[in-house]
Specification:
The chain has about 230 residues and is mainly α. It has one domain (about 1-230): Endonuclease III, domain 1, CATH 1.10.340. Helices cover about 50% and strands about 0% of the residues. The chain has 13 helices and two strands; from the N terminus they run H-H-H-H-H-H-H-H-H-H-E-H-H-E-H. The protein has helices spanning about 5-10, 25-30, 45-55, 65-75, 80-85, 90-95, 100-105, 110-115, 125-145, 150-155, 175-185, 195-205, 215-225; strands at about 160, 210. It has a two-stranded parallel sheet with strand order 1-2. One of its GO terms (biological process) is base-excision repair. Its EC number is 3.2.2.20. Keywords: Glycosidase, Hydrolase, Metal-binding, Zinc. This is DNA-3-methyladenine glycosylase.
């Protein structure tokens, strides 16, 4: 999920929250059942978004199953809000065989029909077909590079990029690195992986640390980038 700048927040479904430093009022924090520490502004939409921000977003991921999970979720988001997809995360986990790329790669037209009847996920035939195609690509990348992780992390030299954004409005929609990743994925016939989605994937799995400089998670995620990890 990408906390895009103001000009793109509406299209990405991430309205601004709190002040530019991402500090929520005490009543809002209390209503969400969380503490009022400064966070990225987009996190304040719901308690689930806060948990995602605090536990998942930006933490370096090098496990192929989790990387495939985020590839499925990010490509499913296209044209929708991240909150919509996050609310359906567990339904996606069930529908897509625990995000096992080998199993998803074997999905047939009958499986697509099953997914189209699943009210728990986004029932878009093109996106569902792309998810199956992307699973097959993930396996090809694993064979070529040793792992899906090795392929993705090669775009940042195996070291997370550390941004220094002060406000949500400063964060770009995409970057040259994301554009290069998108171009290469599309060259390999991946679906729904334009530059904005590629950057969202990079942000989500920690190829880039886009937590704001005022966000309490920035330093924690930066430390996590110094070693292979999945959560912090």
């Amino acid at each position: 999920m990408t906390p895009a700048p103001a000009r793109a927040l509406r299209s990405r479904g991430v309205p601004g929250h709190g002040d530019v430093a991402g500090k929520a009022s005490a009543p809002l924090a209390a209503a969400l059942g969380v503490d009022a520490r400064e966070r990225c502004g987009w996190a304040w939409q719901s308690s689930e978004m806060v948990r995602y921000h605090d536990q998942d977003w930006g933490v370096p991921v090098r496990d192929d199953t989790r990387l495939f999970e985020f590839l499925i979720l990010e490509t499913s988001q296209a044209g929708l809000s991240w909150r919509t997809i996050l609310d359906k995360r567990e339904a996606y986990r069930t529908a897509f065989a625990g995000f096992d790329a080998e199993r998803v790669a074997r999905f047939t037209d009958r499986d697509i029909a099953r997914l189209l009847a699943d009210a728990g996920i986004v029932r878009n035939r093109a996106k569902l077909a792309a998810s199956v195609a992307n699973a097959r690509l993930t396996l090809r990348l694993r064979d070529e590079f040793g792992s899906f992780a090795a392929y993705l992390w090669s775009f940042v030299g195996d070291v997370p990029q550390q941004s220094t954004w002060a406000t949500d409005a400063d964060v770009p929609v995409t970057t040259p690195t994301a554009e290069a990743l998108s171009k290469d994925l599309r060259r390999r016939d991946a679906g729904f992986v334009g530059p904005t989605t590629a950057y969202a994937l990079m942000q989500a799995v920690g190829l880039v640390n886009d937590h704001l400089t005022t966000c309490f998670r920035r330093a924690e995620v930066a430390r996590a980038g110094a070693r292979p990890t999945e959560s912090l």
